[in-house]
Amino acid sequence: MTQTRRQFLKTTALAVVALGLAGTFPALAQSVDLDELLKPGPLGDKVLGEEDAPVTIVEYASMTCGHCANFHKQTYSDMKKDYIDTGKVRFIFREFPLDPVAAAAFMLARCAPADKYFEIVDIMFEQQRSWAFTDNPYQSLLDFSKQIGFTQESFEECLTNQGLLDAVNAVKDRGAGEFGVNSTPTFFINGEKHSGALSIDELGKIVEESL
User: Fold this and answer.
1) d(CA 168, CA 171)
2) Do 179 and 191 form a contact (C-beta atoms < 8 A)?
3) What is the pTM (predicted TM-score) of this model?
4) pLDDT tens digits for 20-74?
5) What total of structural domains would you count in the chain?
6) Thioredoxin domain: which residues (predicted)?
7) C-alpha distances in angstroms, 136 versus 16, 41, 117, 130?
8) DSSP strands (E only) in the chain
């Protein structure tokens, strides 16, 4: 169910319970059509790695998902060093917000300079508890946004951009409707679905088998 701008602004200040919604158990692997999966959504994809890398990993994540934060703090840097930077993996990161605060965080990352996107996502996951799980997430997110270059005016301009919110929702809706994403994080490795935060050993085994 998508959020309109009015609903978003009304619900952002509510306490977030997304941590309890995140997937905790690995699901049986299933495959989706890779060509369809790799078609970018209305925002375009955020990508790291070589276009001709033999393995493509697509991650659907929520910025308020504790398991997503754990993956990015514990596995992501090793994945980047061992597989993305070595030309083995092309990594695509997609929005799957579980709540309005996660949607707001994705919108801010998209409103920031394009070359800062992954840096900002990393900071958001690293500092997740300081802005996502507070009594007033709206104010906490505003305070956080000022650390990464936003003013109150640019913050509000970004979060009242209905077209951007609709596009974030469209990425989520397509992930759920076409590819069966129902928890975060969810990974597609060369089209094969894996749910839950993967350790570097688990991810590495799958990647090596796909090379």
Assistant:
1) 5
2) no
3) 0.86
4) 333 333 444 589 999 999 999 999 999 999 999 999 999 999 999 999 999 999 9
5) 1
6) 19-211
7) 9, 31, 25, 11
8) 46-48, 55-61, 89-95, 186-189, 192-195
